[in-house]
Each structure stands twice: as C-alpha cells, then as structure tokens.
C-alpha cells in the first residue's frame, strides 16, 4: 500500500510538474508574442513620427525660403521709403518771426521773465538778452 501511495504521489508530482512547465512555457510564449506586438507598434509609431518630422523639416525649410524672399523684397522697399521720407520738400510757408510768435515761444519755454522795467529779459526779436 505504501508503494502504491508512493507511485501515485510520484505520478501526481510529475503531472503537476509537467503542467507547471507547460504553463510556464505558454506564459513565456504569450509574453514574447505580446512584447513583439508592442515592439511592432512602437516601431510603427516611431516610423510615423519620423515621417512627420521629415515633413515638418520640409515645411520649415520652405518657410525659411519664404522669409528670405520677403526680406529680399521688402528691404529694398524699406530703403525706398526711407529715401522718400528723408527727402526734404520745399516749403512755401515762411517761418513766423513776428513779435507775437516770439512772445509765444518764450512763454512756452518758460523764459518769459520780465525785468523791473517790464521788458522781457530774453527778447530775441530786439536782440536783447539779459537785463537791459
């Protein structure tokens, strides 16, 4: 009876061992397949990213060419505008050097101090500067 029990025990242990080895082997194979699928998806995503990156670089190069073209077109125009604006036009009006304008300019500049006799101390119309 002990021999029978031992044989059954060895048989059950070997069946359990075979089952565990099969399970472990299947688990490892499933893990490898899953990792291969993940790696394939990662490679696909990386390929898409590289494709997008190449397209983006092409767009950036095209934009840089356009910027260069804009600079080449607009810098001469800016020079022409500066030349046109800085050109002095002849004016038909003469400067107003009347006494009223000089008084106005003195009042605006804060130099309209009068001396004790009531004269402006900075009267450039008469050529008198200072207290006279």
TrEMBL record:
Coiled-coil positions: 31-58
Transmembrane parts of this sequence: 6-22
UniProt keyword terms in alphabetical order: Coiled coil, Membrane, Transmembrane, Transmembrane helix
Chain segments carrying region Disordered: 107-132
Protein name, per record: DUF2570 domain-containing protein
Naturally occurring in which organism (per UniProt): Photobacterium phosphoreum
Lineage of origin: Bacteria, Pseudomonadati, Pseudomonadota, Gammaproteobacteria, Vibrionales
């Amino acid at each position: 009876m002990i021999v029978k029990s031992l044989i059954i025990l060895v048989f059950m242990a070997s069946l359990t061992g075979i089952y565990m080895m099969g399970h472990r082997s299947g688990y490892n194979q499933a893990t490898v397949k899953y990792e291969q699928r993940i790696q394939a998806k990662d490679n696909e995503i990386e390929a898409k990213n590289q494709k997008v990156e190449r397209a983006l670089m092409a767009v950036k190069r095209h934009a840089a060419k356009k910027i260069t073209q804009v600079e080449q077109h607009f810098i001469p125009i800016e020079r022409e505008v500066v030349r046109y604006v800085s050109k002095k036009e002849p004016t038909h009006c003469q400067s107003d050097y009347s006494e009223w304008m000089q008084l106005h300019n003195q009042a605006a500049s804060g130099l309209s101090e009068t001396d004790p006799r009531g004269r402006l101390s900075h009267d450039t119309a008469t050529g008198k500067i200072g207290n006279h």
